[in-house]
Amino acid sequence: MNPNLPSSTRPNEFPVVLKPSMEAMEIALRVAEVDPRRTLFLDDNIRNVAAGKAVGLRTVSLNKVFRRSRLMQKHFVLVHGACHGSWCWYKIKPRLESAGHRVTALDLAASRINTKAIQDVHSLAEYSEPLLEFIASLGPEEKVILGEHQFHLGAPWTLQTSPS
């Protein structure tokens, strides 16, 4: 993740930092403008989970989720990051389902099966429209666990703009 990339003039002007670097986690939290104490970080790599915990995130090791019975029958909603689609969850989705969970992997606007052209997406609201529509379709008492790939900025925004 490199928040300075859009302003760079040379490819090597700003370093790229990746998880499990705590610096990468801190940059992602700052860019996404989320409170780490109110953010659940899911990952299948124990080093990434440890780094997330070190910066104050609430964390879950997906390797433990698959074995832990108290999380059974949860509904996971998985949202891809930039330049991805729901396909990025191809390893996680079947593992969650085989552990008895309900899983919905969404394609955001202009991604994979969503037929909207990227040129027609002019805002974060339009990009996140499939997620907003899905959340609006949930029953008033239905709870979901939102998992996002690459700290997708639309997910925290969506949760802040959703009625419940």
UniProtKB/TrEMBL annotation:
Coiled coil: none annotated. This is PREDICTED: salicylic acid-binding 2. It comes from the Eukaryota. One of its GO terms (biological process) is jasmonic acid metabolic process. InterPro entries: AB_hydrolase_1, AB_hydrolase_fold, HAD-like_sf, HAD-SF_hydro_IA, HAD_sf, MES/HNL. Residues 75-147 form the AB hydrolase-1 domain. It holds the Pfam family Abhydrolase_1.
